[in-house]
Design goal:
The chain is built from 4 helices and 30 strands. By secondary structure, it is mainly beta. The strands form 8 sheets. The protein has an 8-stranded antiparallel β-barrel. Strands 3-4-5-6 form a 4-stranded antiparallel beta sheet, with no helix packed on it. Strands 7-8-9-10 form a 4-stranded antiparallel beta sheet, with no helix packed on it. The longest helix is centred in the middle third of the chain and has 11 residues. It is elongated.
Amino acid sequence: KRISTSRRWLPAEDEDFPNNPNSGACLLLHNANTWPTDHVNLVRLPCNSFAGHGYDIYRMSHDLAEADVVKKMVSGCCGQLDIQCDGTNLVIAENTNFKVATYDRDGKSVSKFGDKARDAKDDDGRLIGWGSCCNPMNVRCLSNGEVLVAESSIGHVKRYAADGKFLGLIGTAKIAGGCKHVAVAKAVDQDWYFLMNTAANNISVLVPLSEAPDETDDERESRLAMQGLGQKLLGSWKFERRTDKAEKQATTKSEDGDANGFDYGEYLINKNKFMQLNGDGKVSRLESKPAIQSPTPKNASSGGFFNFLGGLFGAKESVTLSTNVEVNEPSRWEAIKQEQDVVQFAVFDSDVKSLVASVRFIDDQKAEFKLYYDQASGDPMAVATYVKVAGCAEGSCADGNCPKPVDDKAKSSEHKDSAK
């Protein structure tokens, strides 16, 4: 009936716990946590609703008896729903509502705070809003009453008082875009914070700026890459042809439930057919005309998944191509690292990493681009030849060493991602 490890209780398959194929996941077990024993001997965990697409939260005794639903139809994007306990109440990261919600043990609402506003700032210029398609993704209740909030896709970790007052941006972990579990925690005996980066199979460590090196290993690799082959990237690049033989296929479902073949590599190419990489770190994907005309990917629906991906990257300003792929403006880019004759760079749309490219120069005017979604490892999503159609835009290459990694101090953060 159960598995017990350090007071985490996981139910085995049982008819008492629904397995609804329409909700995108069987059970969310990794978030099962106990209420403090000095308050009440109860376990609560979320699992699929018997009907619909949400999750129900159950309260039960430690022997998994007397199960009662205390909260119904809580939504979670892409199967993600994090629930925690502050010692008295249930605290939920309601990511589809852009709220942190507190409920009592019977599921009655106590308070809510948060808004969808990626660039919202307080009077001191600190980032206080949440961005991307669905955040906050994870929360953590601290012993001092504060609540940590972690954002997927963006990597922000922020501190809030129990009443929702914003206390500060702890820092930004370097993670990929997408709705992913980003469990967050704080060290007990030092001012260090940790965020789980499932895409890279590691844990980001945020240390105080006073303890962080002036230049982390990642920043050093980025600087050297920019000073090296990164200089050859400066300018305007235009897609010429796709060269990988086998198109990478992924199957998804449109809104009407019909299966459609989706080639993510073709999506990346269509979104990045033209890239003007400026020395000031800015990216433009638009030529002098209002839209880039590009062929529609095979079997692509007119909306659905493409529109979802556009929302995932969450840009403020965008131009829709004929394929319904959104081009996000403004964007920025960073060199990642250089290995022999290959340089890697990443493109960020509204601070969400949307593309990683590994570039090998054929000559000064032509290069092979291997396109990835998150990191340049394994098989690329697509391989294509790009040609350089113009040099660096006037006035954007003034110092010759840009772009530089985003400065954590400039974002009013307290910590820096300095270890993995």
